[in-house]
Amino acid sequence: MATQKNIPVKSIRVKPRRATENMRAWKFGDDIDTDAIIPGRFLTINNPDELAKHAFEGTRDEFAKNVQEGDVIVGGRNFGCGSSREHAPLALIGAGVKVVVARSFARIFFRNSINVGVLPVICPEADQIADGARITLHLGEGYLEAGGKRHATEPVPAFMQGIIDAGGLVEYAKNLKEAPVCTR
Amino acid sequence: MTATIVEKIFSRKCGNEIRAGDVVMAPVDGAMIHDITGPLAIQKFYEMGGTKVFDPKRVIMLFDHQIPADSIEAANNHVYMRKFAAEQDIYNYDINEGVCHQVTIEKGRAAPGEIVVGADSHTCMYGATGAFATGIGSTDMGFVLKFGALYFKVPETIRAEVSGKFQDRVGAKDLILAIAADIGADGATYKAIEFTGKTVRKLDMAGRMTLCNMAIEMGGKAGIVAPDKVTWEYMKGRRKMKPFDLDSDEDARFAEKRSYTVSDLDPQVAIPHNVDTGVPVGKVAGTHVDQVFIGSCTNGRYEDMAEAAEVLGKKKFSPGVRVIIIPASRDEYLKTLRAGLVEKFVKAGALVEAPCCGPCMGGAFGLIAPGEVSLSTSNRNFKGRQGSTEGKVYLCSPATAAASAITGEITDPREV
Fold it and tell me: Model ipTM?
């Protein structure tokens, strides 16, 4: 069978805390695509720790070197556009990033993130957050604090909150006997 | 009550009225996995407690991104998937058939009115058959493999109505690059794009696939063309289905309507490093190119090969350009071969490779070095997409790619 390095690993169960405190921001711009997050040539790797070594390679090389557990990524519009590769949120998990804040997200990345346990936070004023700023989430109250300023955040759709509360789609699915087909 | 084609598809599936904005757990008719996203999907299926897939006949498996295996890791991923296919009694096209999206449509595994998902963002291409098709991640796919259904937020629809007659050497790819520039890289996020109008009705299936393929480049959840004579003719021999009516009601609620006229449309080129940057070819004409790639799910069909061959005529490709041509599937390769085009391309100086994704994903072969320029008929020109992040990728039609491969610089195909 496959070598250890290459066997897809068990998902990491992440249950985001209601308030996540004092996280350091890595600021990125608009239209950060999944090729930037993890380039195509590394997609044979399925292990988050290995993927993390190549996160933002060629785009922001100091990221993989200096990122620390609990750091947060701050993006502009359309974060995570492009490919459906789940390796993108997995690379972030491997890097210790459990939260991405952005003005808006591409659809597949948004859903993949929730499914694997990275929390995507929509914050229309994300572009006002500075690189290196300290961020504290108060999602229950609908805002985050960055550099002493409050910025409104948007709630996630109800059905996705159910998946977040379960700890990701794997945990959600484990407890599901059959899919409630065609119920709304 | 009036409805869009997408709302009708979901309503038909579930037997009640479903409208945009509804969140519904809908059954899927087909689920496609390939060698990049498949291993993770299978792993998730097992982690979810899966033992038997919902219906082996509805699972479409093939390898296309890294074939023949270009690394031991890729070979391992293939082994892992083959084992799953054998265990689950899933038919595996393996490395033999070509690019996932082309093969799925060709084999009749997406059809009008169906809901098909694929663990690849360009799954939206199946909308060319009148299916609702969307790309999903591996964990969602694990869920689909287990349950045969998935949560969908039924999207609103942008209706793009296209009229006018294309000039010579201008076609579907130029149109979709122009539409992407108009709608923007996130202008259709969470929405479906329905392509309609006289020009779309006149397009062959190849052209419709090119349009629907790139809906994702605007953030779209799906691209779709309502089935008509062209569609049903294509489905013959692929699926036993009786033609039925399926189209948006004229007075359905659309997110917006946009209209385009192609009569004056110039060949378009998307400039680095975003897809929504299409400009008339004249604006970038003269840009030196190091590599030209004609292929991919977007433009790897026989019609694309024939267009490139017509532009080529009796000329040769520039010796200063690496020309890589890859028909998207075995069928398309055979059509190209039988028409004598493989010999023509090879004699003109091109490499003609076996069906696969090729340089499009920048994971296998055909990578570019720092400072190099690739001109490509594929769908993405993100920084680093085809190799070095210090390289540049421009996107264009097969005609523009062929013309530029002849001259060694970006060239208007009407001028060679």
Answer: 0.93
Which chain A residue's Cα is nearest to B389? A58
Mutate to test the interface with A, among B12, B40, B379 (most CBs of A within 10 A): B40
Convert the pLDDT of each residue in A11-26 to its tens digit.
444 444 444 788 999 9
Please, what are the domains in chain B?
A: 7-154 (3.30.499.10), 155-239+255-265 (3.30.499.10), 268-415 (3.30.499.10)
CB A91, CB A12: distance < 8 Å: no
Per-residue pLDDT tens over the stretch A78-124? 999 999 999 999 999 999 999 999 999 999 999 999 999 999 999 99
The span from the CA of B9 to the CA of B114, in Å, is: 7
Residue pLDDT, tens place only, B91-118: 999 999 999 999 999 999 999 999 999 9
Give the residues across from A48 on adjacent strands: none
Distance, CA of A124 to CA of B330 (rounded, Å)? 47
Q: Out of A44, A83, A179, whose CB is closest to B149?
A: A179
Residue B324 near residue B350, CB atoms below 8 Å: yes
**Cβ contact, residue pair A86, B138, below 8 Å:** yes
Q: What's the CA gap between B187 and B174, in Å, rounded?
A: 18
What type of residue sits at position B337? Answer: L
In the DSSP assignment, the letter for residue B213 is H
Average pLDDT over residues B388-405: 97
Q: Is B374 helix (H, G, I), strand (E, B) or coil?
A: strand
Answer yes or no: do A10 and B79 touch at CB < 8 A. no
Contact B302, B206 (CB under 8 A): yes
Q: Give me the total of CB pairs closer than 8 Å, taking one residue from chain A and one from chain B.
A: 186
How is residue A84 annotated by DSSP?
A: -
Residues of chain A with C-beta less than 8 angstroms from the C-beta of B382 = 33, 35-36, 82
- Which of B35, B385, B180, B23 is CA-nearest to residue A111? B23
Using an 8 Å Cβ cutoff, are B275 and B379 in contact?
Answer: yes
Task: Return the residue in B53, B54, B121, B392 with the most chain A beta carbons within 10 A, the one to mutate for interface testing.
Answer: B121
Level-2 CATH architecture, domain A4-174: Alpha-Beta Barrel (3.20)
Among B24, B76, B121, the residue with its CB nearest the CB of A83 is B121
